[in-house]
Amino acid sequence: MTDTSDFENMERDGWSNPSIAKGYADGFEMATHHVAKKLADAVDAGPEVKVLDLCTGHGVVAKELVARGATVSGLDFSEPMISLARSAVPKAQFVQGDAMAMEFPDEHFDAVTIGFGVPHFPDASRGLIEAARV
Ligand SMILES: C[S@@+](CC[C@H](N)C(=O)[O-])C[C@H]1O[C@@H](n2cnc3c(N)ncnc32)[C@H](O)[C@@H]1O
Prior knowledge:
Bound molecules: S-adenosylmethionine
Radius of gyration: 14 Å
Number of helices: 6
């Protein structure tokens, strides 16, 4: 099995840096906002739909899902990102955690969104299997 711990540590360290978190939130605003709308369309976000936004970052996808009436949880391992998300989207619930091994039970959500998160997974198939599980 491939050892992905160096990649995993680099990702955690990088995103835990408050200036990288803020720089991403500000610098990629136009692209992330555009994709958030596409993701919300893809999961038919609306009232009665319970969505998990993985790698939620500063909450750009969560914000779009909430605007459409969905019940939204966001998960990210970066404390500064979670803090930005909580300020931006008070109506969503945010938890700090690892997308590769979540504590949610099986089939807890109706849908999962992931905006620009998969390339940051140390093992994309493991992350997607975990997303499908919840
Ligand atoms: C490029 S940002 C995307 C933020 C937002 N979803 C968007 O659409 O702009 C990637 C985010 O994934 C988070 N992340 C990366 N790997 C993760 C993992 N294994 N578990 C939880 N969060 C992770 C990072 O902390 C970062 O906030």
